[in-house]
Amino acid sequence: MGSDFEQKIDLEKKFSRVFSEIKRLESKINKKQGFWFFETHIYSQEDLFNSEHHSKIDSITEKIGSDVISWNRFGQLTEEARYIYEIKRDEVQFDLERVDDIIAQREPTWWEQVESLFKDFIVKVQTNMPQLERILLTTGLLQKIPVLSGFFKKMPKPLGGK
User: Fold this and answer.
1) Are 69 and 63 in contact (CB under 8 A)?
2) 34, 6, 43, 16: which is closest to 110 by C-alpha?
3) What are phi and psi of 32, to 5 degrees?
4) What sign does the CA torsion over 135, 138, 139, 144 have?
5) In Å, how far from its chain's centre is CA 76?
6) 3-state DSSP assignment of residue 34
7) Are the C-beta atoms of 136 and 122 separated by less than 8 Å?
8) Which residues make Cβ contacts (< 8 Å) with residue 91, sequence separation at least 6?
9) Are the C-beta atoms of 134 and 158 separated by less than 8 Å?
10) Buried b (16+ CB within 10 A) or exposed e, 73-88
């Protein structure tokens, strides 16, 4: 890529795509569904950390880095393009660290806290009394409580039919 103007436009366009993906990711952090006490985040922290936005950002920034290295190697990287690259690179790093911190520090909703307690309880029961847990889940007793029906899946019967 030859001219200073072309490099500047190319970098600005590619970096704007990166910042758009960061904004899309950030917009998902606090999205919720449900109502009142039963409100939950639509996207788990794991979903957010492993989102398609991270993949797109990785792909776009890989292309930016490849272009800049190539221009520099062939003596075609202009001073203005180098300056834009370094400034935008730092902005991307800052924004990604900020968004990742927001995701990591996001407070669970009340229902997510309660759900976590139920899951922790089931793990404790499995550890302490595995047979009791199997009986509760295979007989469907927990599924009969409307509020809990979606959180406890029936366990398959153990081999040997017991």
Assistant:
1) no
2) 34
3) -130, 160
4) positive
5) 37
6) coil
7) no
8) 15, 19
9) yes
10) eeeebbeebeebbeeb
Closest by Cα among 21, 99, 96 to 53:
21
* CA angle (79, 85, 86) in 5-degree steps: 90
Per-residue pLDDT of the chain (162 residues; tens, 9 = 90+): 557 788 899 999 999 999 999 999 999 998 888 887 788 888 888 989 999 999 999 999 999 999 999 999 999 999 999 999 999 999 999 999 999 999 888 888 666 677 767 777 677 766 776 555 566 666 666 566 665 555 555 555 555 555
**What are 139's two structure tokens?**
């007989």
Token pair of 72 as six digits: 């520099």
Instruction: Sketch the domain layout of the chain as residue ranges.
Output: 4-107, 108-162
Whole-angstrom Cα distance, residue 97 to residue 103? 10
φ/ψ region of 43 (left if φ > 0, alpha if ψ in -120 to 50, else beta) reads beta
Contact 109, 39 (CB under 8 A): yes
